[in-house]
Each structure stands twice: as structure tokens, then as C-alpha cells.
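Exam revision sheet. Question 4 asks you to relate a sequence to its structure. Input first:
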Amino acid sequence: MATKLISGNFSADQLNQIVARIERLEEEKKALADDIREVYAEAKAHGFDTKILRQVIKLRKLDRAELAEQESLLEIYMDALGMQINGNADAEAAE
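Answer key, C-alpha cells:
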């Protein structure tokens, strides 16, 4: 079978290979997402809060400087809204 040129740069065979690879990767991605969902369900069955686990996973991806910046901004925003976090509530209650 002759390879049909779609444009001057690639053929239909190349396009089919690329599409097939993307489809396989999409299937793998779905399988991984299903596996992750199962692990969260297992964690929940053991009494862990999955919302907090997701937050921990997200934070662990950050480098230390980025994490410190986010924590600092969170504290600033919460303070501006009159919300206390961590030990701040105890300190202000004593005042």
C-alpha cells in the first residue's frame, strides 16, 4: 500500500501512528485515574479525609519556597478576613 502524502511534511501513516499513540496514552491515563480513585477510596475506608489527602498531595508537589509563599499569603488573607489559624486563635484569645 502506497503512503499517501497529506502535506509535504507528513503522511497518513505517520498521522495514524500519532493518533494511535495518543489513544493508547489516553487509555493509560484513564486506567491510572481509576487506580488513584481506588487508593483514595481505600484511604477513606481507613478513616482518612480524602479532601485533606488531596491537599497534602498538592502541597508536596511544591518546592519549599513556593510552599512558604503560599502559606504566608494564606495567613495574610485569613488575617485580613478576621479568621484565625493555628496558634493565632489562642494568642488572641488571651489578649
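Marking note for examiners. The mean pLDDT is 88.
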